[in-house]
Each structure stands twice: as structure tokens, then as C-alpha cells.
Design brief:
Blueprint: E1 6-11, H1 24-35, E2 39-44, H2 54-64, E3 68-72, H3 78-88, E4 94-98, H4 100-104, H5 106-111, E5 116-118, H6 123-133, E6 145-148, E7 154-156, E8 191-194, E9 197-198, E10 217-218, H7 221-235, E11 239-242, H8 251-264, E12 269-274, H9 281-289, E13 292-300, H10 304-309, H11 316-328, E14 332-337, H12 346-359, E15 365-366, H13 381-386, H14 413-417, H15 422-427, H16 434-451, H17 457-476, H18 478-496
Parallel strand pairs: 1-2, 1-3, 3-4, 4-5, 8-11, 11-12, 12-13, 13-14, 14-15
Antiparallel strand pairs: 5-6, 6-7, 9-10
Helix pairs in contact: 2-3, 7-8, 8-9, 12-16, 17-18
Bound molecules: cobalamin and iron/sulfur cluster.
Cobalamin binds near residues 26, 76, 121, 208 and 375.
């Protein structure tokens, strides 16, 4: 019997990242590799209830003795991932990377110790690349990867065409992860991520999501329904979240998916994220009738000039029409904004706050996301245009600007609750002055206080008082703040069943 090779797929640790379901990328790769006869293990270091640090991972890998270790690379977590690689070097496995950062910066990744990088979409390349690393096929015969040759040089092979029929992909290997690792006491009905399409034809200046190309490709409604049915009957999951770049580009297709969900009579609800310009009243009606309970929209700015300069395919007027319309159909709207574009002054930023206030009667939640302050991700137009002017080239490798470096900075309770993006402001990519920083603080505080609406009056008051108090004490004495608030942080973590990575 031929040797059964062992593969360990790792999603590396982040200080700010937390997963309430396992990332789709490694689940899909695991499914491909299992089908091909490999023994596959998954280690998601950011699973909400089972977080792992670099030392834990190194220990697990040492005990498992895999032949191949595959790692997903995102830019903010890259320094920790490179540390992990140097810890893993000794165990004798071939190290292969994939994901957004690996795709954009393959030479840097090879220079930091990886043996190979898969570019872009991984499913069609991963098996061949592993075979080549194991010496079972010539390395130059593999399309769409970069490997390290005998002299330590990165060799790029020809690009691999995108997968044409997404229905050919296997179901993600969800059986390889423990559902309880993702439990969340807020929401006992765990949601599962699912994708229905890939690619987005828009060209937003700050978007680092070009991994799946500009061409919109999609799975058939029937194929998606089979997966939903399978998840429901295997895990009893009733809540689904679509992680497509822009799910509603082809409205007829969404109508087919919705019709299928209705006909299946499954007691499920779902959410999705999509583009403002691809949704209309008829579609909202159809989505609501099929069980869509939430849509995440990237509104980004209330300053028309910013939308134009970012090549956003929507206008402020479209936003003002669509958000109330979405609420009218009983669908909760979650909205994303981005503050701090290099051309924005206080007035422009105020325009965004004004839009937030105007929309607030119809918004369920303002996402206080890390990327709510502009981050110049490599490969984006913003990065290329401004890297020299603001001197942030390769910021992800620097001590001052790599904002996701675990354990190097302390945080107040205020920061852990209100201002998750605090370290992005400390990185200060676009050299904001004090007034601009204050404005950004003000907007984050507005979002936080607004989002407290889900609590009763007493809890709202307690949270508001606590963050004000924390902020004031921290200015006087960070040490004192930490003594007073650490027990509160731990208490909240216990109640919520997860922590957001701060203050621990
Ligand atoms: C869902 C999602 C999240 C979820 C993840 C939930 C979960 N449980 O998975 C949440 C909300 C937690 C999240 C958080 C963040 N995210 Co996010 N996220 C996404 C999103 C929308 C979809 C990811 C996904 O599931 N894709 C589908 C799967 C199938 O694709 P995939 O994971 O890329 O995997 C494929 C390939 O990359 C490759 N591959 C991946 N891993 C590996 C490993 C190996 C060994 C190989 C060979 C191949 C390979 O093969 C896979 C199959 O084709 C993407 C956008 C996008 N289009 O991908 C952004 C995206 C990945 N996120 C991004 C970012 C930046 C973040 C944050 C880091 C935010 C921030 N600004 O700091 C945070 C994390 C916080 C932190 N400090 O690190 C960026 C990454 C950019 C970059 N250069 O790193 C993206 C591209 C969004 C964007 N347009 O800018 N995210
Ligand atoms: S619409 Fe969204 S996914 Fe498409 S390019 Fe813009 S930010 Fe990226």
C-alpha cells in the first residue's frame, strides 16, 4: 500500500481576529486533499473558543509530524506567521503558503522560509504542488505557483486559469473541525459560512480582495442547495452566512437560490454581504421571503468625492435609498464605513458621520471593524499611490506599523470595547493630525453607543459609564486602568464566551 502522506493546514494566530466558523479556504483545500488520499488535519488558531498561539501550534505540529504544512497568509498577521514558520522549520515538513498575502507577495514569503506559494485560488493547484514538493512530479509542470529552487531562489511558473465550473468543487471538509470550538454564547445557533460565487468586477482603490479575479463566476442554485441541505441534515445548522465578494451581481441567480430555499421548506435563515449597486426593491422582497435576515453593505463614505476617487460603484444617494428600503423588508442592515482617506479633511469626515446619523434609524449595527480606518493593503491602488508619500512601504514587516502584532501593546477597556482599530490609528499610515484622530475617536464612540441599543437601559448605562471612566483613568494612569478594568474584561469574556484578543 502506498504511503499515506500527512498534511496539516494552519490558519495562523491573530491578536484581533476571531472565527465563529472555520475559514472556507482551508476547509476546501482539506476536502480536495482528503479526496486525493492524504491524511488531513486542520488547526485554526483563531477559533473563538479554542485560540492557539505560536507555541501551541509548534507543539501540536511537532507531535503530529506532518509531511506537509500549509498556511493561510493574511497581511496583518504576517509577522506572527513568519515567526511560526521559523519555529516549524525544525520538524522537517515541507512548508507551503496560500491566501491573499502569499498571492501578492510570493517572493517575500519564500524569503521568510516557505518552500512554496500557491497563487490565488488554491483548489486546482494544491494537490499538484504538494506532489511536486514530495518529489512525485516535476516542479516546473505545476501551474500557478512559486517554489524555492536549490539555490534558495523563488521560481515562478505560468499562471493557472481560474476554475470555470465552481460546481466541480467538493463540499468543504467541515467534519475535520470541532463545532464546539466556534461556540458563541450570544448566539447558540451556530452559523456556517458558505459561498455561492467568486470574483467582483469592481475596482475599489482600497480593496485587497482580487484573489478570485474580476470575472464573476458562480455555483448553480442546485449545487448551493445541496450543500445547505447537507449541512442542515448533518449538523442541524439553521443559520447560514454567504461570504461571496458580491453575491447579488446576477439577480436572476439569487432569485433561483431563494426559490430553491423556499421550495425546500428548510427552517433556515441566512445573511450575506454585497454591493449597494447590485440590490433593488424586487430582490429585497425575494430575499426577505426566502429567510434573509441580514445584509452587510460596504457604504464606506458619506463624502461623494471619496466614493468617486475610490471608484465605488455606488453614490451617497443610492445608499440613502437602499438602507431604509432594506429595513422596510424586515432585513437587518449591518454597514461598513472607512475613515481617514488621505484626501479627507475634518469636513469630509463629518460628512460620513452625518450620513451615519441619517441612516441610523434603519441600521441594525455599525461595524466597528479593524478596517474602518483605511489600511493600505499591498496590491491595492491606495498602497501603490501613497506608499512613497507617506513612507509606509512594507509596513507589515515593521515594528511600528504592523498593527496585529500579538502582545506588544497594552489596551484599555475603552480600546477593547470601542476602538478595536486603535492600533491602526497608532500605525498612523496617513499621518493624521490630532484633530483628525479625535474625529475618528468620536465616530467610533458614536458607533459603539449606537450598537448598545441591543441592551436594556441599565446595561447601556453601565457600558457607557465604564468606557468613559476607562478612557479618563487611562489618560491619567494606564497601570491603574488595568488594575480596575482587568476583572471586568475577564467577566465579559466569560459572559460572551469569547474574547476579542485584547487585554489578554
Ligand atoms: C469572510 C472573511 C473574513 C471573516 C473570516 C470568517 C471565517 N471564519 O472565515 C472575518 C470577518 C473574521 C474576517 C476578518 C478579517 N479579514 Co477577512 N475576509 C473575508 C472574506 C470576505 C472571505 C474569505 C473567504 O472565506 N473566502 C473564500 C475562501 C474559499 O477563499 P480563501 O480563504 O481566500 O482561500 C482560497 C485561497 O486564498 C487559497 N488559500 C487560502 N489559504 C491557503 C493555504 C494554502 C496552504 C494554500 C495552498 C492555498 C490557500 O486557496 C483557497 C481556496 O481557493 C475575504 C474576501 C475574499 N474575497 O476572500 C476577506 C479578506 C480575506 N479579509 C481581509 C482582511 C484584511 C481581514 C482582516 C485581517 C481585517 C483587517 N483589516 O485587519 C480581519 C482579520 C483581523 C486581523 N487582524 O487579522 C482581506 C485580506 C487582505 C490581505 N492582504 O490580507 C480580504 C481579502 C478582504 C479584502 N477585500 O480586503 N474576514
Ligand atoms: S465591491 Fe467590494 S469586493 Fe468588489 S472591488 Fe469593491 S470592495 Fe472589493
Amino acid at each position: 500500500m502506498p504511503k499515506k502522506y500527512r498534511v496539516l493546514l494552519i490558519y495562523p494566530p491573530s491578536k484581533t481576529q476571531l472565527h465563529r466558523s472555520c475559514p472556507m479556504g482551508i476547509l476546501l483545500l482539506a476536502a480536495i486533499l482528503e479526496k486525493a488520499g492524504y491524511e488531513v488535519h486542520i488547526l485554526d488558531a483563531n477559533a473563538a473558543r479554542n485560540r492557539r498561539d505560536t507555541e501551541d501550534i509548534a507543539q501540536i505540529a511537532t507531535e503530529l509530524k506532518p509531511d506537509i504544512i500549509g498556511i493561510t497568509l493574511l497581511t496583518p498577521m504576517i509577522r506572527e506567521a513568519y515567526k511560526l514558520v521559523s519555529r516549524l522549520k525544525g520538524i522537517g515538513a515541507e512548508l507551503i503558503a496560500g491566501g491573499p498575502h502569499a498571492t501578492i507577495m510570493p517572493d517575500e514569503v519564500i524569503a521568510h522560509g516557505f518552500d512554496a506559494v500557491v497563487i490565488g485560488e488554491g483548489e486546482a493547484t494544491v494537490e499538484e504542488s504538494i506532489k511536486a514538493l514530495l518529489g512525485l512530479m516535476p516542479k516546473d509542470d505545476v501551474l500557478g505557483w512559486v517554489y524555492k529552487d536549490d539555490h534558495g531562489q523563488a521560481v515562478h511558473t505560468k499562471p493557472r486559469p481560474l476554475i470555470t465550473n465552481l460546481d466541480d468543487l467538493p463540499l468543504p471538509a467541515r467534519h475535520l473541525v470541532e463545532p464546539s470550538d466556534y461556540g458563541n454564547s450570544h448566539n447558540p445557533e451556530l452559523h456556517m459560512n458558505i459561498f455561492s460565487s467568486r470574483g467582483c468586477p469592481a475596482k475599489c482603490a482600497y480593496c485587497a480582495g482580487g484573489l478570485f479575479g474580476k470575472k464573476f463566476r458562480f455555483r448553480s442554485a442546485q449545487n448551493i442547495l445541496q450543500e445547505i441541505q447537507h449541512i442542515y441534515s448533518t449538523y442541524g445548522t439553521r443559520r447560514f452566512h454567504f461570504v461571496d465578494d458580491s453575491m447579488t451581481i446576477d439577480k436572476d441567480r439569487v432569485v433561483q437560490i431563494c426559490d430553491g430555499i423556499k421550495q425546500s421548506n428548510l427552517p433556515i435563515t441566512f445573511s450575506l454581504m454585497t454591493r449597494i449597486d447590485t440590490v433593488n426593491e424586487d430582490l429585497l422582497k425575494t430575499l426577505a421571503s426566502a429567510g434573509c435576515i441580514r445584509i452587510d453593505y460596504g457604504v464606506e463614505s458619506g463624502y461623494p468625492e471619496t466614493l468617486k476617487r475610490c471608484h465605488k460603484p455606488h453614490t451617497v444617494e443610492m445608499v440613502k435609498r437602499l438602507i431604509p428600503l432594506t429595513a422596510k423588508f424586515g432585513i437587518k442592515t449591518y454597514v461598513f464605513f472607512i475613515l481617514g482617506f488621505p484626501w479627507e479633511d475634518l469636513e469630509a469626515t463629518q460628512a460620513t458621520l452625518n450620513l451615519m446619523k441619517e441612516l441610523s434609524p434603519y441600521v441594525e449595527r455599525f461595524h466597528q471593524a479593524i478596517a474602518s480606518i483605511l489600511i493600505p493593503f499591498p496590491g491595492t491602488e491606495i498602497y501603490e499611490k501613497y506608499k512613497k508619500e507617506f513612507d509606509f512601504e512594507n509596513w507589515w514587516l515593521s515594528d511600528d506599523q504592523a498593527y496585529d502584532a500579538p502582545g506588544i501593546k497594552s489596551h484599555s477597556f475603552f480600546e477593547s470595547e470601542v476602538f478595536w482599530a486603535g492600533d491602526v490609528l497608532k500605525a498612523n499610515f496617513f499621518h493624521y493630525d490630532d484633530d483628525m484622530k479625535q474625529k475618528i475617536y468620536e465616530i467610533f464612540k458614536f458607533m459603539y453607543i449606537y450598537n448598545l441599543k441591543r441592551h436594556n437601559i441599565f446595561m447601556k448605562y453601565m457600558f457607557r459609564m465604564s468606557i468613559e471612566f476607562s478612557q479618563k483613568i487611562y489618560w491619567i494612569s494606564p497601570g491603574m486602568e488595568s488594575i480596575l478594568f482587568t476583572p471586568i474584561v475577564y467577566f465579559l469574556q466569560q459572559c460572551r464566551g469569547w474574547n476579542n484578543g485584547f487585554n489578554v
